[in-house]
Amino acid sequence: MTRPGQFRCAAAAFARGDRQAGTAARARGWVLIEHPGPWPFGGFAELDLAPEVQHVVRHAAQSAGMRILLVRRHGRQPSGREALWAVLRYDATGEHRQEWGSWSEEADLAQIAAAIDRPGATGLPPVHLVCTHGVHDACCAIRGRPVARALNEEWPDETWECSHVGGDRYAANVLVAPDGVYFGDVTPDQAIEAVGLLRSGLVAADHLRGYTDLAPAEQYAVAEVLGRFGPAGRHAIQVRSATRRGDRWTVLLECAAPLPAEVAVELRFYAEPAAQLTCLAPAPSRALAYETVAVRVPPDTRR
Q1: Which residues span the domain enclosing 13?
Q2: How much is the pLDDT for 2?
């Protein structure tokens, strides 16, 4: 429970009306390493592992554009079993790939580097990752754990708590991988609704931070189209071009039915007023945000 006068970044961001569209951390894949905790502030990078193991895994992940997350199941887990690891790879065709393995000794983690170079299996259900990294930011634990509990009750095999995914002030944060879809500022019920819709093949703009394969301005433009014309499938919107002039972006999107065939989103980026953006931030800072200037649909592309 938050004590009177105790600062919480997520509550402050909500009060300010911080915009979250366009804030998903970019990645082409994820390495998951099951670790019961406690998780250090820096996650995998600060685990007490042999330096050579750290180097092999980090170098392979960075070379492939992947992020490393520590994960654990929600609630108490039976002891005596090997921990799991996974390589989740985003694919622009929608044929997302996964490979899973197990480890009990540090040296076993070197298997991950080889797995990153393999294609992996398709057709597996998506993984729901809920940030509950309280050492990194209290809001992630306070708001993330109830969401992890709710998703775990609905989809126990696919739900994991995870270490820092970025955007503490948008807690609770949910990353669906390998789909690469970020949701933020969700309650348990909202998380179930958003994840359930995605599992059915659609993405809505509500609580969408963005798609991890896109740049921030492109993420924002996609969310704008989904908000006006969606929901739509994860791969129903493709970025044809993104052009910047000064503080303006024009993002041209090609869309599948029933969305308009073509949409041009003009947006402006700006620095928000200085604020404390995380619970542990030592000083105020300014974040970039986006706002819509215009949305244009050519008459001959309307459906």
Answers
A1: 9-213
A2: 45
- Detail the DSSP E strand segments found in the chain: 29-34, 66-72, 83-89, 97-103, 127-131, 159-162, 174-177, 181-183, 208-211, 237-245, 248-255, 262-271, 288-296
CATH for 163: 3.40.30.10
Look at the pTM and tell me if it is higher than 0.85.
Answer: yes
Residue 273 domain flag: no
Asked if the structure places residue 33 within a domain, the reply is yes
Phi/psi for 293 (5° steps) reads -95, -45
Burial status of residue 158 (CB atoms within 10 A of its CB: 0-12, 13-18, 19 or more) = middle
Look at the chain and report how many structural domains it folds into. 1
Residue 232 resides in a domain: no
Q: What is the DSSP string of 187-239?
A: -HHHHHHHHHHHHTT-B-STTEEEETTS-HHHHHHHHHHHHHH--B-TTSEEE
In the block, tokens 């992940």 appear at 61
Report the C-alpha gap between 172 and 22 in whole angstroms. Answer: 16
Per-residue pLDDT reduced to its tens digit, 160-202: 999 999 999 999 999 999 999 999 999 999 999 999 999 999 9
| Residue 291 domain-assigned (yes or no) | no
